[in-house]
Amino acid sequence: MDTVLRPALFVAGALVVTLIAGGVVDLLLRRADARHPETPLWGLLRRCRVPFQVVLCTSLLRGSHRQAGILPEHAFGIGRFLTLVLIASTAWLAVRIATAAVDSTYARYASVTQDDARVRRVRTQVTLIQRVVTAVVIVVAAAAMLLTFPPMRAVGASMLASAGVLGIVAGIAAQSSLGNLFAGLQIAFGDTVRIGDTVVVDKEWGKVEEITLTFLTVRTWDERRITMPVSYFTSKPYENWSRGGAQMTGTVYWHVDHSAPVDLMRAQLQTILNDIPEWDGRGSSLVVTDTTPHTVEVRAVVTAKDADDVWTVRCAVRERLIAWLVAHHPYALPRVATSEAAPRPQA
């Protein structure tokens, strides 16, 4: 009976201590969050409750499973299993803490900074830093778990002996991956492209939706996602419409008859823009830019706060000015002359 009751009491005691400690820590964090509303750190740290409890419970069982007599005939295997769980849960807890610290830093910066470009730059940097920290923690945890097996220690010693050759071979084999990795770090801290920027790549325009250490995702205007290696943005030219600010200037073209009332069109353009909420009021103009034997090319320039709004303004101006010409000046619409040509004079 004692062989069953004693292990059960130890396990139950570890679970009770874990639940109490988790509740106390959560209560302290909740009170700290209420006392310091200016920072979300304490509230974000509450997400660490589950990994903290797993680490605590595993530590208690790892240190007492032999005294508790938990499966004594498999004590070595139980100890090895608990060690692996402890390493994995510690890595989980470290990632959660790092994520909470990074998210808190970004949230506080975004709340006090009015410059949207700076906010997006910091967001890109902290996202990549978070991914780097997560990758490092996972690699270290995996290495620590492997080193708990004695055969792996011998393998590690032999690998260190030939590390120079392996490093050269790995560097050649992973040249593309390493290039993308360093390109990701260059993008993060070189401020060339940021999450939320409007870019044009391969004649497709959209917004940068995600940046990782190896690839970048652009969401196009029609909700498609273009995924490409980050090295593309360090080796090839591209358009970044948000660089230096998101404000945009757009153009609208019409082909009208030579008799078109350009002055009235210019006045009507201003009336149309005043009724379009997406127009930011920074500027507008309408001029004749070209002429052909049959038509005159008229160009309007409009402005908006970003690429999405300038597209809306361009479409609205094009549609409304054509409707105005049709309703009030139909003679100004382009037409094809069908009159007979004048006869050639006789010599």
The total tally of domains equals 3
Estimated helix fraction = 55-70%
- Taking all Cα atoms into account, the compactness measure Rg is 33 Å
Give the biggest beta sheet. 5 strands, antiparallel
Distance between the termini: 132 Å
- The rough form would be described as elongated
Structural class: alpha+beta
- In spatial order, strands of the major sheet run 4-3-2-1-5
Figure out the total of helices: 11
Tell me the total number of β-strands: 8
Order of helices and strands: HHHHHHHHEEEEHEEHEEH
Overall pLDDT, averaged? Answer: 79
How would you summarize what this structure contains?
This protein is α+β, with helices and mostly antiparallel strands and 347 residues long. It contains eleven helices and eight strands.
Features:
347 residues, alpha+beta, SH3 type barrels, Alpha-Beta Plaits, 60% helix, 16% strand, elongated
Summarize the topology.
Layout: H1 2-35, H2 41-45, H3 49-68, H4 75-112, H5 116-147, H6 150-161, H7 163-173, H8 175-190, E1 198-201, E2 204-211, E3 215-220, E4 225-229, H9 232-235, E5 239-240, E6 248-256, H10 262-274, E7 279-291, E8 296-304, H11 307-328
Antiparallel strand pairs: 1-2, 1-5, 2-3, 3-4, 6-8, 7-8
Describe this structure in words.
Helices cover 60% and strands 16% of the residues. By secondary structure, it is α+β, with helices and mostly antiparallel strands. A hairpin with a 3-residue loop joins strand 2 (204-211) and strand 3 (215-220). The longest helix has 38 residues, at 75-112. The protein is elongated, with a radius of gyration of 33 Å.
